[in-house]
Write a structure and sequence with these properties.
CATH architecture of the largest domain: Beta Barrel
Number of helices: 4
Number of strands: 6
Strand order of the largest sheet: 1-3-4-6-5
Distance between the termini: 27 Å
Order of helices and strands: EEEEHEEHHH
CATH superfamily of the largest domain: Nucleic acid-binding proteins
Number of domains: 2
Helix content: 10-25%
Structural class: alpha+beta
Length: 163
C-alpha cells in the first residue's frame, strides 16, 4: 500500500483563476507560498519560501475563486506531484503541484466591497453583491465557514506552530 498526502498552510501569491472544462466542471488554479525560518551557519535567521501550484475542482473550486484573494491564508490537503519543465529561457525547472482534496479558508473573510476597496476599486456593483448575499437569521450576520480555524479556537499563535 502507498499513500500520497500533503498538508499546506500558506498564503496565496495571486488571485485564484477559475475556468470551466468543456463538460462544465469548475477548475481553480492557485499559487500558495509557505515560508520557514532557519538559522544559517553564522547564526543569522534566513527565510526559505516554497511555492505550490494548487488545483481545486467542482464546487470547492468555485468557493475558492469566490472567497480567496491574493495574500489570504489558506489550509490545503491533497496529493503532491513533482513536475519538470523548461522555462522560456531554456532553463530546466521543477514545480510542486497539489491536487486539492480539502481547502479551509483561514483568517478574516473579506467582503466583496472590502476587496474592491483594497484594490482601489469602488463601484455600485460590489455594494449590490454585498446586499444580495444571504443573511443568517440567528444574528443578522452573513454565514461563514462551519469550522473555526484550529489556531484561533485553541488560542495558538503562529510562532507556536512548528512548521
Amino acid at each position: 500500500m502507498s499513500f500520497n498526502k500533503i498538508t499546506i498552510v500558506g498564503y496565496l501569491g495571486r488571485d485564484p483563476e477559475l475556468r470551466y472544462t468543456p463538460q462544465g466542471t469548475a477548475v481553480c488554479n492557485m499559487s500558495i507560498a509557505t515560508t520557514e525560518k532557519r538559522r544559517d551557519a553564522r547564526g543569522e535567521t534566513e527565510e526559505h519560501t516554497i511555492w505550490f501550484r494548487v488545483t481545486a475542482w467542482g464546487r470547492q473550486a468555485e468557493l475558492a475563486a469566490e472567497y480567496l484573494a491574493k495574500g489570504r491564508q489558506v489550509y490545503v490537503e491533497g496529493r503532491l506531484r513533482r513536475e519538470e519543465y523548461t522555462d522560456r529561457e531554456g532553463v530546466q525547472r521543477v514545480s510542486l503541484e497539489v491536487n486539492a482534496s480539502d481547502i479551509q479558508f483561514l483568517g478574516q473573510r473579506a467582503e466583496p466591497a472590502e476587496r474592491a476597496e483594497e484594490n482601489g476599486q469602488v463601484d455600485e456593483e460590489t455594494e449590490n453583491e454585498k446586499a444580495s448575499k444571504p443573511v443568517s437569521s440567528r444574528n443578522g450576520k452573513r454565514p461563514t465557514s462551519k469550522r473555526a480555524p484550529a489556531k484561533e479556537a485553541a488560542g495558538i499563535e503562529d510562532d507556536d506552530v512548528p512548521f
